[in-house]
Specification:
The chain has 219 residues and is α/β, with parallel strands linked by helices. Helix content is 46%, strand content 16%. The model has no long low-confidence stretch (mean pLDDT 94). Bound molecules: cytidine-5'-diphosphate (2 copies).
């Protein structure tokens, strides 16, 4: 039984969950894990092998051959695929944005990555962010958050980051898939950050955690 706390942060595309999770982890002195990057890395590897991502059988076979590691650098996990650390450009390529929800709906891919995510508790206390962290990966966590924002705000935030990304289409696929769809996890505190700053959203998470007895390492 592992006693290290895992703070789970879920939410739709471009809601701000990665930024919130990274800053919360920094304030607490916990390791930050972006599980979307694990699904993106798997997608990159499958595409690199020439697989058509709409062919779930081919994706399933290829995924089993991918060697994915999560080295920790400066308080956060990176993704290393078959020995190569992927860059932000690799992970956020237009081709990956278009394909990732197809790869993420394959149950065997989810089984592999959920097991890898649970294994990361060996690193110590975590802030882990994604779509199913509070609902499936760590359902028994006492510290769950759901970061939301309106569709208009999310599209505008993604555009401002300079990515061509159909966030509405990814949300539709992520919310309607059979295996581990995006949901507000039982017991999660929802923070809508459409009209508040990133710092205000982080302060709200830290305030909820402080009430639950989770102390910040950094003020
Ligand atoms: O940053 P953004 O919200 O746009 O996406 P992401 O967190 O990088 O996740 C990319 C994709 O991976 C999502 O659209 C989901 O299809 C999938 N994903 C998932 O299925 N489960 C997770 N725990 C994290 C991501
Ligand atoms: O991880 P996710 O795709 O949910 O979102 P993100 O990459 O953390 O945030 C998308 C963009 O929105 C980033 O450029 C954030 O700085 C920005 N953002 C913001 O301007 N205000 C907020 N309250 C939250 C995020």
């Amino acid at each position: 039984m592992d006693a290290s706390p895992v703070i789970t942060i879920d939410g739709p595309a471009a809601s701000g969950k990665s930024s919130v999770a990274r800053l919360v982890a920094r304030r607490l002195g916990y390791t930050y894990v972006n599980t979307g990057n694990m699904y993106r890395a798997m997608t990159w590897a499958v595409q690199n092998a020439g697989i058509d991502v709409s062919d779930s059988d081919a994706v399933r076979h290829q995924a089993g051959a991918v060697h994915l590691e999560s080295p920790v650098v400066e308080g956060q996990t990176l993704v290393r695929v078959n020995g190569r650390v992927l860059t932000a450009e690799d992970l956020n390529a237009d081709s990956v944005n278009r394909a990732v929800s197809f790869v993420a709906r394959v149950p065997e891919v989810r089984d592999l990555l959920v097991a890898a995510q649970r294994d990361l508790t060996k690193l110590g206390p975590l802030v882990m962010e994604g779509r199913d962290i509070g609902s499936v990966v760590f359902p028994e966590s006492a510290f769950k958050f759901y970061i939301d924002a309106s569709e208009e705000v999310r599209s505008a935030r993604r555009q401002a980051q300079g990515h061509a990304d159909q966030v509405a289409e990814r949300d539709r696929m992520d919310s309607t898939r059979k295996t581990s769809p995006l949901v507000v996890p039982d017991g999660a505190v929802t923070i809508d950050n459409s009209h508040i700053t990133l710092d205000q959203a982080v302060d709200q998470v830290i305030a909820v955690l402080a009430e639950m007895g989770v102390a910040s390492a950094v003020q």
